[in-house]
Structure formats: structure tokens, C-alpha cells
Amino acid sequence: MASLKSPVAAEEQAATAAAAAKGEGERCPVEEVALVVPETDDPTTPVMTFRAWTLGLASCVVLIFLNTFFTYRTQPLTISGILAQILVLPAGQFMAAVLPSREVRLLGGRLGSFNLNPGPFNIKEHVIVTIFANCGVSYGGGDAYSIGAITVMKAYYKQSLSFLCALLIILTTQILGYGWAGMLRRYLVDPADMWWPSNLAQVSLFRALHEKEGGDGGKGSSSRGPTRMRFFLIFFFASFAYYALPGYLLPILTFFSWACWAWPHSITAQQVGSGYHGLGVGAFTLDWAGISAYHGSPLVAPWSSIANTAAGFVMFIYLIVPLCYWKFDTFDARKFPIFSNQLFTASGQKYDTTKVLTREFDLNVAAYESYGKLYLSPLFAISIGSGFLRFTATIVHVALFHGGDIWRQSRSAMSSAAAKMDVHAKLMRRYKQVPQWWFLVLLVGSVAVSLVMSFVYREEVQLPWWGMLFAFALAFVVTLPIGVIQATTNQARIHPSIDLTMNRRRRSLIVFENLWWLQQPGYDIIAQFMIGYALPGKPIANLLFKIYGRISTVHALSFLADLKLGHYMKIPPRCMYTAQLVGTVVAGVVNLAVAWWMLGSIDNICDVEALHPDSPWTCPKYRVTFDASVIWGLIGPARLFGRHGLYRNLVWLFLAGAVLPVPVWLLSRAFPEKKWIALINIPVISYGFAGMPPATPTNIASWLVTGTIFNYFVFKYRKGWWQKYNYVLSAALDAGTAFMGVLIFFALQNAHHELKWWGTAVDHCPLASCPTAPGIAVKGCPVF
């Protein structure tokens, strides 16, 4: 924890940095990076201080607790790293003001020493705290599939899984991703062409928080009004107080389905108008958790992506699904609810997987043939088909619109990484580098432990050693090309009204048109297909193959993005290594501990049939994870999507996805003056249907409306306010909602202080989940 000391005097370092910045050949060739990222560095700035360790570990633990806690709720909430990025600044400044400047010697100095207060809280400490916090987001919110697999094994399959086995699954997944990241940093972090545009928003926010506000501000700036921190506190407490209504006193605000009140006896009206079990036409939510539950905060999504997502949403929900259900009765759709994340039998009853499972959690083929085929609700089936379309559409779209740029940048980065160092790479050479073998040890160690686990816990994990190796090979093959896509194709657009000149003390945020739909393109569908054919009838093996083959890549790319952020902010590589590794282990242990506690202490958690109708612990995210294990693992793709499968025609959407981007690309080349043509994005349009279920149409519609208000109207007509407060408002709403949700649970729900009145019913649409096919009898529904 000792402050980093440089052998070169600070004056000499500053002079060298200034000289490097003036060399045109050494500057970053990416204009957006050159405008935003500072091209100077002071190596004497302390980084791994006592304050950084304290705030970093605290942020990591708090974020992983909140994100894990909320993933089990009916309206999950993901707390982003922006919360920690904003909150730790006043906390760090407070510690700098009150801590004594005293040297602390560890074991009499044998383990080194550190200063409790080495000076003002600086930007590098702030960055390292955010790196710790990002580990909490990666585990619990960014992609909680690892803990989802543990939840499915314990809550749905009732498997007797040991804590040690679960912990090994969690940690090896993350550390495997970290090992991939370390091995690929030479290609995806060091080259200037691998610029990770999403990090520029982070850099801009760091500078905005640390550099004084004020001055003339320039056109479009917002020099009036409260400071960002005061604004955050106002809306944090407002959000905190307000969430007592949808979170406890008045849950009906989560889904306000007025159509069900107007037609209380009409199945069709409730199917159309229900916010929870229907298409959500006219329904809305006044609950921030409901708005941001599945696509994250709409305040940080770019407007072009919102517009494309809206086009796909309208097309799927208001055109395709109604036609398939009421007009063509596709896949026997009217035997089932129009929207549900449940699985069904041919008679419209819920599918009981225990009747087709052996004691070893394999498929009992004879029992399956006797019990009958598995069916999906129409919206669920079409959602899977849209995933097929999105996968191939993403590949073709990227190849057509960005293929040339990716190829040129990749060749430049791979062939001459050492020769093409920009000023940032040269500044980073002053620090001790992390030896490659440090990462190799982590990679080999996680692979070895995973293989040992496949033997020792063979019955629990189902995945044999060759399946593990297959998953590792898949991750190895796809991580580099997907990383190149993420590092090069997200397009950052700097609005002309935003001042980013280097001689201003004030910094403003960048406006991004990120291709955020490219974050880890959904090759998990292909992974599930492959292992479903290779190991049919084994649902747990399917879950774990996805974790090791796909989720490890997700984590690797998250670590690589953070490594590039450290590169831009001139964080010593060994400090980055320490923060990421410690944060990973701490977050993994806390992640599993919180999940284990909740699974053991909340009665019937995730069991919708056994829970109280108004219980918030329905686990919609993990229900879909369970469904995926049944569809791709237990029953298998051959029975559902194969030659004789009921859903075999959905496979044609792979071909449709490959074809649809082509005319858009041809038109954009034929009419280059019509810029709007190139904004038609087939993958993002198909993303309008992503996440349903567990997301409901009302969740997505409310997200689209909120995003349009802030990222189109507010940005267009109140640009200065947007620059100054938009991201801060997003963090405040997340934080206030999260802390009130936790307070309600511990103070009221955990003590069984439940309210029961008209306003606590979530939807008031009991007929929305009824079938409409003649002769189908379901409890609580009329028979046609």
C-alpha cells in the first residue's frame, strides 16, 4: 500500500510528458481519444493508498451485495459503477481532510509501510476505487449468469450442492476470464487502434468530477444550478423516499394496467393491456426499478440505439405477436398464455420437469415420451427466434459496415504493436509491467481446478473433462475477435456544441452513439446448440458449459475494458493487477455468500406456485435461466428445433438475420447522401425483443419512453443541463431505489410485515394469463 515512488524527478517527468505530447507521430491516432484523454502524467501521484483500499473494497462489497440482492426480485435492479464513481469522491475528500498524515509500519516495517493521508484525494485513487467497484458490477449486475446457475441448481432442481463446489464454480469462471484478459492485453489494450470508445465516457466523467466547474463555460454549458454532488444528494433522497410507494405501500405503481379496470371480464382486453402477463398496451410503470430492470438505465443509452430498439419493439409486440396468436395460431399459441416465462404441456398446463428427470438430473426418455412434448408461450418462442436472427444479423452487419475498419485496425495492432506506440503507451512504459506469467498462472490454475472439479464433483456438475476443454477452446477462439469488435467498432460522436478543448479547466461529458448492442454478441445460442447436441438430456452440464464457454469471455472483455481505462488514466499496471484480482476474489465470495443466505433464509424463494401472490422474490431472471437449461439441456435442441421439432421453422431466422442487413448496406452505399439509411440497424431492431421474458413489454416500453425524453428532447433542448446532470441523475435514481429496497426488506418484509389491500396487487389482470383455445381447462380461467 505504499505510495508509488519514481526514480525520476517530477519536473523531469512533466517535461518529458510535454515533449511526448508535442510529437505528432507519438500522439494517439484516434481523434476522439486525443481530444478527451490527457497526454500527461505525474508518476509520483500515490495510487494504492489506504483510502483507495478502504473505499475500493467497501464499494466492491456494497455493489455486489445490492446487485445480488436485487437479481432475485420481480423487478431486478442493476447498480452501475457510476454510483461508486460519484459517491467515493466526497468520501475520499472527507478522508483526506480528517485522517492524520502518519506513517504506518506493517510488522515493524518488514512488510513495508504506508501513509494514512498522503495528500489530497487524487484522480488515480478515484480510478482504482472504480476498478474495485466494477468487480461488484461484473459479478452481480453486469452478467449474473454464474450465480444464476447456482440458483437454478439449488432452487429449481433442488440439488444438494456444497458451498465449496459453488465457490469454485464462481471463482474459476471469473479468474479464467481474467487469465484470458491478461494473455490478450498485448493485442486489445496496448495498441492505440484498440481504443475501447466506451471508456471515453468514464475518462470524461473522472475529469468532470476532479476539475473545477465554472468559468465562462462556453455555449451550451450549464454553469448555473447546484453542483453535481448537491444535485446527486437531492435526487438520491427523493428517490429513496419515493421507492417506499412502489416498493411497499403502493406496489400497483410498478404496473399500472388501466385496460384491466375498463374490461375486468374480457380475456382479450387483459391479454392486450396487462403490464405483467400481457402485451402491456397502455400500461406504464412509475417505478424506477421497473424502468431500468432489464436494459439498465435508459439515461445512458444513446438515442439512435433507443430509436432502433423502439422500431423492433413496435414491430414485434404490436404486429408479429398478435398475428401469430390471434390470426395464425402459430405453434398452437392459443393453448397457452400470450406471454409467460413458464413451460407448458400440450393441454396448456405447466410443465412439471420433475416427471421427466432421473435422480441424477438426466432426462428420462421413456417418461418424456409418456408425459408429452414441451411447449412455450408464443411470445417466448418468438423471442428465442429473434435471438437466432440477432446472432447472424450482428455478424453480417459488423462485416458489411465495419469489416474494413476492423481488418485494417487489427492488422495494424497485431503486426506492429511495439512500433505503433502512441503517447499513452510511452507514458505507461515508465511503470513496472506485469509479467505475462502472472496471468498465465491464473489461467492455467483456473483450468486445472475446473478439470479437477469435473472429476471430484462429477455428479453435481455433469460436465465431463472433455466438455470443460471444449468450453475453454470455445472461449479461446471467440474472445479475441469479439474483443476486437468491442474495442474498435463502438462509434463515439462528439457533439459540436460540447467543448473539449485542452486549455479549459472545465470538462464536459461526451455524447456517445455507442453500438452497445455489440457488447458480447449472443454467441451463447450457438454454444447452447452445440453442447445440447453433444450432451443431450443434461441440464446442469448445459448451464456450466455456458458459464465456462461464454460467460468467461464476458468477464474477460470486462477486465480488458478496465485495463484500457487504467492505460488511459496512467494507473501503474501492477496496481491494476492487484485491484482487479483482489476485487474479483472478494466479489466472488460476497456474491455467493449473499445468494446462499437468501436461498436459505427466504421461504420458497423463486417458487412462484408456493409464494404469496404479491411476493417480490419470484426470480424472473433465474426462471429464464432454468427454462434455458430445460430447453437446451434437458429436452435438447434436437427435440425442439430439429427436423421433427415443433419449433423447427424458427431456425430459418438464422438465414433471415444473415440476409436482412444486406439491402440496408447496399442502399447506404448507393445513396451515401441519405445518412439516415446507415442508421437502420437490424441487430438493434431485433434487440427490441431481447430479454422478454423475463422482461415484460411494459418494462421495455417504459425504458424507451424515458430514454427518448432524456436522450432526445432534454439533450436537444436543454443540452447544458444534460451535460452536467444526466449521468448524475441516473446514478442517484439507482442508488436511492436500491437502498430503500434493502431497508424495506430488512425492516419490514423479512419480519413478515406485509400489507394487503387493493393497492398492493401488482397487476389486477387475473385473466391475462388464460388460454383462449377451445377445450383448454386451466384453473381460474373460463373454458371456451
TrEMBL record:
Output one GO BP term.
protein transport
Report the domain of life of the source organism.
Eukaryota
**InterPro entries linked:** Oligpept_transpt (IPR004648), OPT (IPR004813)
Q: Name one GO cellular component term.
A: membrane
Regarding the membrane, this protein is recorded as: Multi-pass membrane protein
Localization of this protein:
Membrane
Give the residue spans that cross the bilayer.
50-70, 77-99, 161-181, 231-256, 306-328, 379-401, 437-457, 463-485, 577-599, 650-667, 676-692, 698-715, 727-748
Q: Which GO molecular-function terms appear in the entry?
A: oligopeptide transmembrane transporter activity
Whether Transport counts among this entry's keywords is yes
Q: Which UniProt keywords apply?
A: Membrane, Peptide transport, Protein transport, Transmembrane, Transmembrane helix, Transport
Q: Which residues form the signal peptide?
A: none
Q: Which family does it belong to?
A: Belongs to the oligopeptide OPT transporter (TC 2.A.67.1) family.
Descriptive protein name? Oligopeptide transporter
Identify the species of origin: Oryza meridionalis
